Amino acid sequence: MSSFLRYFAGTALSATLSLWASGAAQAETLTDALIAAYKNSHLLDQNRALLRAADEDVAQSLALLRPVIAFAMSGAYTDPASAANGGQNTSASAELTATLTVFDGGQNRLALDATKETVLATRSALIGIEQDVLLSAVQAYMDVFAALQNVSLAENNTRLISEELRATEDRFEVGEVTRTDVSLAQSALAEARSNLVAAQGALATARESYKLAVGHYPDTLSGIPNLPSVPTSPEAARAVAVQTHPDIIQAQHNVTVAELNLARARAAQGPSVTASVGYQRDDNSDEGVTGQIQLSQTLYAGGRLYAAERQAVANVQANRAGLLQTVRLVELDVGNAWSGLAVARAQLGASDQRIEAAQLAFDGTKEEARLGARTTLDVLDAEQDLLDARTARVQAEADQYTAVYSVLSSMGLLTAKHLGLGIPTYDPNAYYNAVSSAPPKSLQGGKLDRVLQSIGRN
């Protein structure tokens, strides 16, 4: 091999050995990987923050239903030389006012309901992100697991061909085979070494993907657990998906938001009533209380209000169509995931049969070659067929696990809660309950600090 290949192979082999060096006591299970992915995901952190931002929209909408209390002070100075008839050259006053929208056709109440529905839609989107994070962790774990086995197979194949080369050289020395047989064995060994380097490179790549998905490089892997249960038919899986998939639930809430916004657009065309009360005092100790009720309605706005209503109607239609399309896409995902699982299961069964046949063929060919009935090329071909069969089984097993979890994801069930990971999960109600009532800062502070501390965001 070239110096570069020797360096790369040595580096990849060191990475391989490091995965196994810590012993079974430190072995990392698939469950461990899922837990780490859930805890370390910056994508989940990002979308949790977006959910908390949506929670604050509820507080702001609720505040529109409450009075606004404002305080104002003013002062004035007049140059005595320019003031008419002399007089006082300074003045000051203070005013405290409270204003409340008494009636607006339900616009503010509808806005509050719409923001609540938006929060629920955002929560569903967060569940969808959680599914993506966990499925990526499963894929990364199985890729590393398969890559480790492929490296082991490639190493074993290299050793076997090295032994075959030595045996061929010995037979050449005594005249049993020709130089061509030796060259064939040497070529096969070079190919085996190349395949080993490729397998080690695939392992290095899989480790990097694992770090991205899980948050750290893989330790010793403990193997793969029992497969989680899935429905017995794609029809049963689709029935569950239509009821539980977060994309469908999110689309349903988006339809409700659009309908509420349509009602708001229509209410904006009606009258509104605002009441205010104020108290004023100046530096002469003159004081007074004022009260005011104002009825207003827009009679003409250049067509803006009716355009807003038509836009809201179009948004309702778009979101309803989007809901139907989402249902179809989810059903499609279930069908594709189920097909992938069926293919993986079939390939795994076929791979077992292929290995059994390839092993018998290799053993027979090797024995026949010893008796002179087969050539070195026949032995090398049989050995390559056996390696290919074992490699195919490794990939088929990894594909089966990924396919099972893909079915769960397509059903909307690939969550930390459903998988029973046994860890505290993010509670979206904690922050929502702390801010949705729009409490004053002095009352909110202590409780909100505790909530933020509990989710690791001080």
Automatic annotation (TrEMBL):
What Pfam families is this protein classified in? Answer: OEP (PF02321)
* Protein name per UniProt: Outer membrane protein
Which PANTHER family would you find in this protein's record? OUTER MEMBRANE EFFLUX PROTEIN, OUTER MEMBRANE PROTEIN TOLC
Localisation: Cell outer membrane
Q: Determine the domain of life of the protein's source.
A: Bacteria
SUPFAM superfamilies according to UniProt: Outer membrane efflux proteins (OEP) (SSF56954)
Family stated for the protein in its record: Belongs to the outer membrane factor (OMF) (TC 1.B.17) family.
Question: Is-annotated flag, keyword Membrane?
Answer: yes
Give the Gene Ontology MF terms in alphabetical order.
Answer: efflux transmembrane transporter activity; porin activity
Using the record, list the residue span of the signal peptide; answer none if the entry has no such feature: 1-27
Q: Which InterPro entries match?
A: OMP_efflux (IPR003423), T1SS_OMP_TolC (IPR010130), TolC-like (IPR051906)
Keyword field contains Transmembrane helix: no
> Which key words are in the record?
Cell outer membrane, Membrane, Signal, Transmembrane, Transmembrane beta strand, Transport
Assigned GO CC terms: cell outer membrane; efflux pump complex
